[in-house]
Amino acid sequence: MDNLVKRAQKFAIHAHRRIDQRRKYSGQPYDAHLKAVAGIVRTVTDDDQAIAAAWLHDTLEDTTATYEELESEFGEEVAHLVSELTDASRPSDGNRAVRKAIDRQHLSRASTRAKTVKLADLIDNCRDIVKHDPKFGRVFVTEAAALLEVLEGGDVKLLARARKLIAKSADKLGLPPLQPAALAIDDDIESPVEALYYRPRVARLFADAFRASDIAEPLRSFDSIRNPEDIGRLLADYDLPVAGIRIDGVVMGFTCRDDLEKGAEHAKLRTFSPDQVIDGNGSLTDVIHILNRHQFCFVGMLGDVVGYVSRSDIQKPLVRMWLFGIVTLVEMEITERLAIHWPDDSWKGLLPKTRVAKAETLKAERERRGLTSRLVDCLQFTDKAQLLTQQPGFLAEMGFSTKGGFKRAAKELESLRNHLAHAQDFVSHDWAQVVRMAGRIEEFASGYE
C-alpha cells in the first residue's frame, strides 16, 4: 500500500473514532464503511490519490478535520477531491429535497475521480441501508436513482454496478419505476435534538436568533506587496490568526499566521473558497457548518470580506447561551414525552431505587422552597434518556436503529450541556455534537414557514 494511502487510512480512522462515530445499523466503528469504499475504488483503479480520498471522503462532513488540515497532510489534490465529495448544501438552504438538489448539482461538476469514489460510497451505503432499514431504504434508493444521473463520467464499471444494485434494491423494496425525487426526513445523523419535532416555531426562533455578524471579528488586511515577515510579526503582536490580502485595494484572499510562522517560503495567498464565505446576516447554524469544514468562516458585507469567525469564537457567551437554550428545549421535550407516556409516575419501577430516591430528594427540596415541581422534572438527564429507551416504538420514531446509538447521542448531549453550564471548553470536547445540533435546529425550523 502506498504511503499516501496508509497515511490517509490512519488519519481517517483516528478522525472518526475520535468522535466515536459508528455505522448506524451494525454499531461497527465507522472505518468499516471507509474500508469498504476504499476497497471498491481499488477494484477499478490504482490511483493512490483517489483511494486516499475514499478513506477521507467523510472527514470534512462528519469529523473535526478541516480542509486546511487535509491540504497540509495530503496535498491540494487530495484535499480538493474530498471537498468535491462533501455536500455543498447548508442547513439553512431548506428541506431535504432542496438540499439534495444542491448537492446533486455540486456533484455534477465534480471530477471523474471524485464521481468514482462517490459511486463506491453509494454502493456500500445502499447495501447497508436496504438490508437494515426498508422504510428509509425507499427514500435512499429513490434519491440514489436521481444521483446516478449526475455521476456519469465516473468509472463505467462502478456506474453499471450501482445502476444494477439500485434497480435490484427498488424491486426488493416494492418501489414503482423510479423517478428522480427527493423525500423528507434525514436519517443520516443520530441526535436527540430530533425530539424537537413538535416545536418548529420555537426552533425557528432559535435558528433566527443570532447572525454571523454578531460573533465575527474584524478582518485586518494588508497589501499583497507587503513583506510576509512584517505581516507575520504584526499578526503575532496583535494575536491575530488570519489577515486579508488586498490586491488593487480589494481583499482577494487571506494568509494564515500558522503559515507565516513556518517561514517566508510557506507564506501564500489563499483564495476564499465559495463555501467558506457567508453574508453578515447568515445564521449561526451556517457559521458552524462552515467551521466544520474550514479553519475560518469569512463574513462578507456589501460585496467585501470584512470579518472572520474561528472555532474559538464559538466559545463566546452569545453562542453558549444559544446552544444551552437548544439543549434545554431538547430536555424539556424529552421530559414531556415521559410525562405523557407515564402520567402516574409508573416509570419509577424501571429505574434503580437510588436514582428514584435522588429525584424525590430534589423534588422535596424544591417544594420546601415553594416551587411547584413534578417528580419527572427532577430526574437526571441520563435517567430520562434511559426511560425513553423503554418506551415502545420510541427508537424508530426518533430515527434511531439501536438503543446503543441513542445512548451514545444522549451521553454526548449531556457532556455538551455540562461543559456549557460550567463555562468549560466545549469546542474541543463536543464539536461533533454542536455541528449535529446546529444542523438539526435549522431542519426543524424549516417546518415553520
Outline the structure in words.
With 449 residues, the chain is α/β, with parallel strands linked by helices. The chain contains 21 helices and eight strands. It has helices at 3-18, 31-42, 48-56, 59-62, 67-74, 76-84, 96-108, 112-132, 134-148, 156-172, 200-208, 212-215, 228-237, 257-261, 284-291, 317-341, 353-368, 381-388, 394-397, 403-421, 427-445; strands spanning 217-218, 221-223, 242-247, 250-256, 270-271, 277-279, 297-301, 304-309. The protein has a four-stranded mixed sheet with strand order 1-8-7-6. The protein has a four-stranded mixed sheet with strand order 2-3-4-5. The longest helix has 25 residues, at 317-341. The radius of gyration is 24 Å and the shape is globular.
Could you give the distance between the termini? 52 Å
Unreliable stretches:
180-198
Number of strands: 8
CATH topology of the largest domain: Hypothetical protein af1432
Mean pLDDT, to the nearest integer, reads: 87
How many domain regions?
3
The CATH homologous superfamily of the largest domain corresponds to Hypothetical protein af1432
Spell out the helices and strands N to C: HHHHHHHHHHHHEEHEEHEEHEEHHHHHH
**Class by helix and strand content?**
alpha/beta
What is the class of the largest domain in the CATH system? Answer: Mainly Alpha
- Annotation field: number of helices: 21
Helix content: 55-70%
CATH architecture of the largest domain: Orthogonal Bundle
Biggest sheet features = 4 strands, mixed
Radius of gyration, rounded? 24 Å
How much of the sequence lies in strands comes to 5-15%
What best-fitting shape do the alpha-carbon axes yield?
globular
In spatial order, strands of the major sheet run: 1-8-7-6
